[in-house]
Amino acid sequence: MPRSVNAVASRARRKKILKQTKGNFLSRRNVYTVAKNTLEKGLQYAYRDRKKKKAEFRALWIQRINAAARIHGMSYSEFMGKINAKGIALNRKVLADMAMNHPEAFKAVVDSIK
Q1: pLDDT mean values, one per 10 residues, the chain (114 residues)
Q2: How many domains does the chain contain in total?
Q3: Exposed, middle or buried: residue 62 (CB in 10 Å: 0-12, 13-18, 19+)?
């Protein structure tokens, strides 16, 4: 009896990989083994960078808050220490947005903790 191979499933699996690598350069999109390696590495980067993105945004928020706090004569650490001591529950994302887009509201927060 001849060996039975499920060619339909194998082809579907390969097509799925090649479909996901559409848009890559040269053999990275149309040679299955190269495309598979490219896709796996890309997914690893995507997983890692989803975590990294959060750290980068937090760093950006901190820089913005620090710059705005220094305009009002306060360092970032001093500002965050006082805001936490007062029990003002505003996270860094909101504070950074206020510092950039609503400076009068940020000034009101600074005045409330001084």
Answers
A1: 91 97 96 98 98 98 98 96 95 97 96 92
A2: 1
A3: middle
Report the candidate in 93, 85, 29 with the shortest Cα–Cα distance to residue 60: 93
62 falls within a domain: yes
DSSP characters for the chain?
-PPP--HHHHHHHHHHHHHHTTT--THHHHSHHHHHHHHHHHHHHHHHHHHHHHHHHHHHHHHHHHHHHHHTT--HHHHHHHHHHHT----HHHHHHHHHH-HHHHHHHHHHH-
**Is this structure's pTM higher than 0.85?**
no
Q: Residue 103: which CATH number?
A: 1.10.1900.20
